[in-house]
């Protein structure tokens, strides 16, 4: 299968030169960089490091003079070049390297033309640009990972999780939904499918943001899941823990019984259950909500009061 061809366009006025090796190394995962260009005002003092790197990197330097104070000629030239390259039909995708949200419209336009758009930028990159890309990667994560590989003293340490990444609990819920959906169809869930579907939902998801080098290790350390390896295939399944379910049902029964004829509010019961069993998740048992879970237990009945709150009672024998 022929490798995909990409145009790598770097906003040198916005991105530090220290990331260059990380950018080029990361692009080898996607294909061949047939265009490699850096847009920058190389006459400025700030771009001195870029000047030295460009000489030895085989990257085309695109000089942009600051003709007007407060205006960014680099952005405009990069956008024009991207459209010119698009119309040549010589590439399958683009890598836009910038932390500037002004490239959001460009990313959208390229995707509308059927292009893959790999975005790279620092953690400060606006959500609008991240969401517009097919995949977005934080440059700090790449840089930290490569730095740790080079420093024996950091062996075994994990980089701190960035404040703007998706919570592990959200990723966990997505995986649970995927597994339950496949279980309902009589299908097993492969590790590759999980990675693909998470990436589609959160296009800047990267296990390196959480200090892992592989998706399998990331998932294996979440208590809800178990990895099943068969030959060269890895499947992901929910851990069976019927004891917890039975304990939760018994716990709920006791609280509803205490409430007597007045019953207990669904939300209040949910808080009690969460306080006693913080790791209990109804989605692990195939239910979308606590109400659905309670409804599925034949000892309970749910009614709506005059304020339209859901109240739980024990069924009369």
From TrEMBL:
Domain HTH OST-type: 167-240, 244-316
A Pfam family reported for this protein in Swiss-Prot or TrEMBL: OST-HTH
Domain of life assignment: Bacteria
Annotated source species: Lachnospira hominis (ex Liu et al. 2021)
Residue stretches spanning the membrane: none
Name under which the protein is recorded: NYN domain-containing protein
Signal peptide start-end: none
């Amino acid at each position: 299968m022929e490798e995909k061809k990409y145009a790598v366009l770097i906003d040198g006025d916005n991105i530090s030169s220290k990331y260059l090796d990380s950018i080029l190394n990361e692009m080898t995962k996607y294909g061949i960089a047939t265009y490699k260009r850096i847009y920058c005002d190389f006459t400025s003092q700030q771009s001195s490091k870029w000047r030295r790197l460009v000489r030895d990197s085989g990257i085309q330097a695109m000089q942009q003079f600051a003709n007007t104070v407060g205006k960014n000629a680099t952005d405009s030239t990069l956008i024009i070049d991207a459209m010119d390259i698009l119309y040549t039909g010589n590439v399958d995708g683009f890598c836009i390297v910038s932390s500037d949200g002004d490239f959001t419209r460009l990313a959208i336009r390229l995707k509308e033309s059927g292009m893959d758009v790999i975005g790279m930028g620092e953690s400060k990159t606006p959500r609008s640009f991240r969401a517009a890309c097919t995949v977005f990667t934080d440059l700090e994560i790449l840089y930290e990972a490569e730095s740790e590989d080079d420093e024996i003293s950091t062996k075994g340490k994990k980089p701190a999780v960035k404040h703007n990444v998706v919570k592990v609990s959200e990723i966990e819920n997505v995986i649970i939904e995927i597994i339950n959906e496949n279980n309902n169809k009589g299908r097993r869930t492969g590790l590759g499918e999980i990675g693909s579907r998470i990436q589609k939902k959160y296009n800047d998801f990267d296990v390196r943001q959480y200090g892992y080098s592989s998706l399998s290790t990331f998932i294996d350390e979440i208590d809800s899941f178990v990895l099943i390896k068969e030959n060269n295939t890895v499947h992901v399944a929910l851990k069976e823990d019927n004891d917890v379910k039975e304990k939760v049902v018994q716990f709920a029964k006791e609280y509803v019984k205490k409430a007597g004829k007045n019953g207990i509010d669904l939300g209040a019961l949910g808080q009690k259950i969460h306080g006693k069993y913080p790791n209990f998740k109804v989605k692990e048992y195939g239910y979308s909500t606590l109400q659905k879970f309670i409804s599925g237990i034949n000892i309970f009945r749910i009614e709506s009061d005059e304020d339209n709150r859901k109240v739980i009672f024990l069924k009369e024998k």
